[in-house]
Design goal:
By secondary structure, the chain is of the alpha/beta class. It is built from twelve helices and 19 strands. It binds zinc ion.
């Protein structure tokens, strides 16, 4: 099936028709001939390259009660994504070629987004021995991003060896920056509010110290480092300094760290418990500024589904993490586009072009131009809706945006010319 997308505004520019044939963009222009093509009326919609997530927890294998590759892929497609990187902290851990190929195949079978496995840095996420990085890179899954996410690679000598190792195949180590000896028992951001609420604090320095160490290691080794879910103003400053020195470092910020603050903890609602924790207004402002000026390269959702029994308990017992895929674009519109800090080309850059480049993904994050793969999302920027967790495609319900009205609606998503979402609904 071929498609003629009529009257969409590529990257927010002038309206144009986009003709999709055989999985590719065949033409972009005025009043294109629709003969033989299905027409998708797109007047008033923004066309962006399909979004790419650097940080998704799909929970399969091991916790299929919380999410599966298929349900997470559907949530991703509904959020406008055409590729997601699946984090390695599954059960078993994705630390061998066998497990990453299993996840990659499940993604192919679901056929809703390209599921790109992330390989663990250390065996079993244990932080002691390097996993089979080369075998995962050479596998059918072609792993390029390695991360112990959920855990920090805390041992500096091991981190150095990982950086040296991945350099050989143009890989990157994605660090969950958290010095564990500074965050033992931590429940929320360490500051005035944690003191008032009587909850153990997670100091900003526990993140910033690891990032500072790792950019120096990356510089020394000459390897690529990616920093997951940057959450503090100080981290943004360190990244700005490292980039000015020419260190090969990239970074992501989550939608929730762009929108929410530690004030949410005052509700004691564990849906707001996340790692790293929600920070202060000042941090949120620095993260928005860092994303706007490119110090922070990308938005990464850290989509972290949890079963009800792991989340709806007392704050101290609840697992950290929040859903993110289905509302990521809306949060970016609310925090960055509507206030005028990022235009649509900027959204395409931070949510598609740069994450695809960091993951070395061919065919994603490409221009909307003839000959390119038809990985596209159509967004209605004028729509507004109140988030209802029961209506989400994710198998879990732990959305921090429940009851909140957010702008923007994904109307259609195309994966290599095949619609995975049409009229705001998943096609499969
Ligand atoms: Zn993490």
């Amino acid at each position: 099936m071929n498609y003629l997308i009529k009257g969409a505004r590529p990257l927010g520019g002038e309206p144009a028709d986009i003709l999709v044939e055989d999985g590719r963009i065949a033409a972009v222009g005025d009043s294109l001939d629709a003969t033989g093509a299905e027409v998708v009326e797109a007047t008033g919609l923004i066309a962006l390259p399909g979004l790419v997530d650097l940080h998704t927890h799909l929970r399969e294998p091991g916790r299929e009660d919380a999410e599966t590759v298929e349900t997470g892929s559907r949530a991703a497609a509904l959020g406008g994504f055409t590729a997601v990187h699946a984090m390695a902290n599954t059960d078993p851990v994705a630390d061998t070629a066998g497990v990453v190929e299993q996840v990659w195949r499940l993604g192919q079978e679901a056929g809703l987004v390209d599921v790109v496995p992330v390989g663990a840095v250390t065996v079993g996420l244990g932080g002691e021995r390097l996993a089979e990085l080369g075998a995962m890179a050479d596998s059918a899954a072609r792993v390029r991003i390695f991360s112990d996410d959920g855990h920090c690679v805390a041992d500096p000598a091991l981190m150095r060896r990982a950086l040296e190792y991945v350099k050989a195949f143009d890989g990157v180590v994605a660090q969950h920056a958290e010095e564990p000896r500074l965050t033992a028992g931590a429940q929320m951001h360490e500051g005035d509010r944690s003191a008032k609420l009587g909850l153990t604090g997670w100091p900003a320095a526990a993140e910033e110290g690891i990032i500072a160490r790792d950019v120096l290691l990356a510089e020394h080794v000459g390897a690529r480092l990616h920093v997951c879910h940057v959450s503090t103003a100080g981290s943004v400053e360190i990244l700005r300094w490292a980039k000015s020195r020419g260190v090969q470092v990239t970074a992501e910020v989550t939608p929730h760290h762009l929108l929410l603050t530690d004030a949410c903890a005052e509700s004691y609602d564990p849906v707001f418990k996340v790692n790293p924790p929600l920070r202060t207004d000042r941090d949120v402002e620095a993260l928005r500024a860092g994303l706007a000026d490119g110090t922070i390269d990308a938005v990464g959702t850290d989509h972290a589904p949890h079963a009800v029994e792991d989340k709806e308990s007392e704050w101290a017992q609840a697992r950290p993490g929040m859903l993110g895929l289905e509302q990521a674009l809306s949060v970016v519109i609310e925090t960055m586009v509507e206030p005028g800090r990022l235009d649509w080309a900027g959204v395409a850059d931070r949510m598609s072009v740069r994450p695809a480049a960091i993951g070395r993904l061919d065919g994603h994050g490409r221009p909307i131009a003839p000959g390119e793969p038809a990985n596209l999302v159509l967004v209605d920027p004028a729509a507004r809706a109140t988030v209802d967790p029961a209506a989400l495609a994710s198998r879990s319900r732990n959305s921090p945006y429940a009851g909140r009205e957010l702008p923007g609606r994904v109307v259609a998503t195309f994966l290599r010319g095949v619609p995975t979402v049409l009229d705001g609904k998943a096609t499969r």
